[in-house]
Design a protein that fits this description.
Oligomer: single chain
Number of helices: 18
Radius of gyration: 37 Å
Order of helices and strands: HHHHHHHHHHHHHHHHHH
Largest sheet: none
Helix content: 40-55%
Length: 501
């Protein structure tokens, strides 16, 4: 930067030349202009070269020859344009000016940020954890001391989310896949929220996605992501950044809460049901993907179908629609899985068609299932995110059988697999308790029954007599009960399940 006087002389010289070259406006009388270059060179070497000071242009410019400059205020002189759209040199205000690469034909952004990050899913979770140190971070030293505040906020959001992803990935071994995905999703959603809060707190143009609400906002951020698969983009591992806020995650918050008809979404009761049974239904089913289509087909027999005959006459219409939708989707999946080609496309079309059909009826009946208020991809993403088992690898039917299962199968055992034990007494005493208390209760009742049975010598059945002769009589009787529970469970699987338990 030259001295203020040298700069003023240069500007005056340019203005004189442009004014003399103009053809559209009246040209003032020209006069010779001379410059003392020796004096200019002395000023350039002056020690106050880089010190800014006010300039009185009256010593250089004649107001009579430059009336336009005289009449324009400093605000009008700043970045003015002629009526024809052509650029007119003007006097800039003092102080450091921001360099705009876009105005000089350069790249649109000097300090790029890979923002925003995509929504974590079963498709990219492995890459999130595996490539965590091969994706960029943005320390304070990455940006210049001034300007680029928007990119700074974007970089901080990326740093925050990546740090929290690292926390989730470290807990993967103990939490399991579903809880890790839930952790990463919560971390991502919180980082989106924090970014929008920070972006709205400054006088700057608000990021477009932040103008949206709820799931529409999240979908917008996901769709804008330049690296939705979380691929590695750095050749060398990047070090973690210090001073990143911590992220607290409780795996229990990801367990699907058992709801009652009074608070289930998409459930509108016309009357208060006389029962307070719990909802037990795998709705909605997850969206078929390349990663889930194999388990979708192979585990189809393990997933339940539902009956609506068990539902009360009124108050459970929404639950009935959900049950029928699952049955139709599973029927479509069965047809698709028999195909040799195009299985995934077929399954996804069936899934979309049946959920759209569900929403058509749901809206017509004034149901309020949240996803049905959306359209197209927003609706499908909502159903996917709401699904209790989106990966098709965990269902209530695949859990390991235990003696507690007698609470669900005791009627079938009494009718078809009688064991000669007071099963009804076990159920009445133990089944109303919690799972842990239920296990202890059943174990205690079997032990007490085995002692009474063997001491009274009333064990007439050959199996009971063998148990009484055994050193581990309670374990022997438990095995007899478990055999009956297994047989009854197999019979139960062949029937449609009631969505109320």
């Amino acid at each position: 930067m030259g001295s203020s006087r040298a700069l003023a002389c240069s500007i005056a010289f340019v203005l004189i030349l442009l004014s003399s070259a103009s053809k559209d406006e009246q040209v003032p009388e020209q006069r010779d202009v001379t410059f003392d270059f020796d004096k200019i060179m002395q000023e350039i070497q002056d020690p106050d070269l880089f010190m800014q000071k006010e300039v009185d242009l009256s010593d250089i410019l004649d107001p009579k020859e430059f009336p336009a400059v005289q009449m324009m205020s400093p605000a009008q002189q700043y970045d003015t344009m002629s009526e024809t759209g052509s650029y007119t040199p003007v006097l800039k205000p003092r102080g450091r000016q921001r360099f705009s690469p876009r105005s000089f034909g350069g790249p649109p952004q000097e300090y790029p940020v890979q923002f925003p990050l995509a929504r974590p899913s079963s498709d990219n979770l492995q890459a999130i954890c595996l490539n965590g140190d091969r994706r960029p971070r943005y320390p304070q030293s990455y940006f210049p001391p001034s300007y680029f505040s928007k990119q700074r906020r974007e970089g901080s959001a990326v740093n925050e989310a990546e740090s929290w992803f690292s926390t989730c990935c470290k807990g993967n071994e103990t939490w399991g896949l579903e809880a890790t995905l839930c952790c990463a999703t919560q971390a991502w959603e919180l980082s989106v929220h924090n970014f929008c809060e920070a972006d709205a707190s400054v006088k700057d143009r608000l990021y477009e996605c932040c103008r949206k609400r709820d799931n529409a906002r999240l979908n917008c951020f996901h769709n804008d992501s330049p690296n939705p698969n979380y691929e590695a983009t750095e050749e060398l591992p990047v070090p973690p950044l210090p001073n990143i806020s911590t992220f607290s995650f409780d795996p229990s918050t990801c367990q699907r809460t058992v709801v009652t008809p009074s608070n289930i979404r998409g459930y509108r009761r016309r009357q208060n049901p006389t029962t307070s049974k719990k909802i037990d239904i795998n709705f909605p089913l997850g969206r078929p993907t390349a990663d889930t289509i194999e388990s979708l087909c192979s585990n189809q027999k393990l997933r339940p179908l539902y009956t609506v005959k068990c539902l009360p006459g009124s108050g459970y219409e929404g639950l009935g629609r959900q049950a029928k939708t699952i049955n139709r989707i599973e029927k479509g999946f069965k047809q698709c899985c028999k195909k040799k080609q195009g299985v995934l496309d077929c399954a996804e079309q069936k899934w979309q068609a049946e959920l759209n059909r569900f929403c058509t009826v749901e809206l017509a009946q004034q149901g309020d299932f949240q996803c049905c208020s959306m359209f197209d991809e927003d609706r499908y993403n909502c159903f996917q995110n709401t699904s209790p088992h989106p990966h098709y690898n965990v269902t209530s039917d695949t859990e390991e059988l235990s003696l507690n299962k007698i609470c669900d199968t005791h009627k079938i055992i009494k009718k078809k697999f009688s064991v000669g034990l007071p099963v009804k007494a076990f159920v009445n005493q133990c089944c109303p308790l919690s799972e842990q208390e239920k296990t202890s209760c059943l174990t205690q009742r079997v032990r007490e029954t085995s002692e009474k049975l063997c001491l009274s010598k009333k064990a007439s059945a050959p199996a009971f007599r063998r148990c009484c002769k055994s050193r581990e009589t309670p374990q022997c009787l438990s095995k007899i009960l478990m055999d009956a529970v297994t047989k009854a469970s197999n019979v139960q699987k062949k029937k449609k399940k009631c969505p109320l338990s």
